[in-house]
Amino acid sequence: MAFSNDAAAFQVQERLKALYRLVHDIEDERTRSEHNLNNITKAHEKINQEEKVSPYYQKLKSLYSAAVADAEQEEELIRSALAKVNEIRSIRNERRLQARNAGNKETIRRGALMKMLQSSAQTLPLWVGKLGEKAPPLCGAIPAEPTYIAKMGDMVAALVKGAEEEENWILAEVVQFNAGTNKYEVDDIDEEQKDRHILSRRRVVPLPLMRANPETDPQALFPKGSIVMALYPQTTCFYKAVVNQLPTSSTEEYEVLFEDPSYADGYSPPLTVAQRYVISIKDKKGKSQT
User: Fold this and answer.
1) What stretches of 145-275 adopt beta strand conformation (E)?
2) Could you tell me if 159 and 183 are in contact, meaning their C-beta atoms sit under 8 angstroms apart?
3) Spatial contact of 141 and 220, defined as CB atoms under 8 Å apart
């Protein structure tokens, strides 16, 4: 849906107001939960003091039931708040795409671009599933479904030919997908290049849309020793690398070793790369490697 500047600003303000109310509701719910948890602690102390079957056991059962209900209510409020944040992100991205399509593409200096890419990776939504729910495709290391089509404005890795016919994986943004030709039209994210490419689907790899939490979804991360493609720090190109260390928290990055023949062992010193920019490697024919 297209937004004018005024309409987009209004939409964002409405969501910010809702977000403000939700944050206060979350704090109120947390205070109520803490009160209930304190009562649980006091009930345990009474039971330990009596050292016998106590009427406090029945009270304790009720307190635990109430604590579970409090936690579920807090969870719903937090999920609602995160949904508002994502709506704001979507509206702002829609306006950016409209400006680009109207020919008003903003020129970003390289230093600012690098900061923007880092910020984009750090603020990528974190997947928080419910009990027993598995992380979905495009969360962390989990690839897209074979039939998935990246949307306009999505970031992808694209295999393109350079001036001397060499092929490189670059960071690009989807302009559109042509279902008739089964090809993507993508823009090189590097402002200095300003190149647009038309590529077959096998030459385009969608980047993760969500971060995986190592503490709750370790299976959604690449195992140590995996061969991957990773965005080399301070560049917009992907290179072959080996996962050296996994992130241990939702805010940490991978530590990878890039293939580099200038070093005696053939690999660079360890470098950190955000989850968003670490993906399954593909060969020249577009097939995933192990």
Assistant:
1) 155-161, 167-178, 183-188, 196-200, 204-206, 227-231, 237-245, 254-258, 271-273
2) no
3) yes
